[in-house]
Amino acid sequence: MPESNREPIISIQGLEMNYGGKQVLKGINLDVYEGQIIGYIGPNGAGKSTTVKIMLGLIKGYSGRVRIFGKDISDGEVEYKAKIGYVPEIAEMYDSLTAQEYLTFVGELYGLERRLADHKAQRLMEQFGLEEVYFNRISSLSKGMRQKVLLISSLLHNPDILFLDEPLSGLDANSVMVVKEMLASLAAEGKTIFYSSHIMEVVEKISSRIVLLNEGNVVADGSFEQLQEQLHEGTLEEIFTELTGYHEHKDTAARIVSIVKEVQR
Ligand SMILES: Nc1ncnc2c1ncn2[C@@H]1O[C@H](COP(=O)(O)OP(=O)(O)OP(=O)(O)O)[C@@H](O)[C@H]1O
């Protein structure tokens, strides 16, 4: 069905946000449809996390309209959150809990019955090669293992929308392949995925649509092929640097090295 005939699963209209007098979102408009993998990219401070946190209901005080599953999220109903999974870039993970305790706790928060959460979590841990640490404390896990636990926690309740912030952070090459394949399968089944990352090669490959944010504005929106046609034949990295005006990376690197070398003798 063409998108114009479908209801967007997420609809953002005229979204603005100020922090202490500084406007960080300047009127974002975005309709997202079921089954899309949105590569949500932009320079540091562009407003990606702020937009995602508004959609998750974690930040109030914005202006504009945000509708998810057809309902305005400012209405105060929180049911929609049970159909959303979230992997933040930096997560508070209750280090003193074991992976089992953490995952069953999160599963229950999302409305799963404890035994089902436990059973699902254990089987997902096995698939990620973590069966031996299921009963270990999170504080004893490696960075990549913690990231896998976080990914599992976002998936346990079979959400319809997934917000992922650098989800491959710390994962080894084999696990990266599993997660990429898994995301493609989930999208093919109709799940919607918001994928924020600074690793342009991955975003280029996995996204069905790329939304580039710069200084609180959407400055590009389309499939990688459309962006190439409209803007620049080349890699996503090249499109990114062209649109965000960051061409001086060599000069900047040289200046940094020169400052680093300044030491008193
Ligand atoms: N709690 C806050 N208080 C004040 N300013 C904030 C706060 N959170 C974010 N900002 C500001 O809002 C702007 C957008 O930040 P945001 O975290 O959304 O950027 P981002 O695109 O996710 O960046 P990154 O790629 O570095 O994660 C930045 O200028 C940031 O300093």
Automatic annotation (TrEMBL):
Residues 10-240 form the ABC transporter domain. Transmembrane segments: none annotated. Gene3D superfamilies: P-loop containing nucleotide triphosphate hydrolases. The keyword Oxidoreductase does not apply. Pfam families: ABC_tran. GO terms for molecular function: ATP binding; ATP hydrolysis activity. InterPro entries: AAA+_ATPase (IPR003593), ABC_transporter-like_ATP-bd (IPR003439), ABC_transporter-like_CS (IPR017871), P-loop_NTPase (IPR027417). SMART domains: AAA. Coiled coil: none annotated. Keywords: ATP-binding, Nucleotide-binding. It comes from the Bacteria. This is ABC transporter. It comes from Paenibacillus rhizosphaerae. The lineage of its organism: Bacteria, Bacillati, Bacillota, Bacilli, Bacillales.
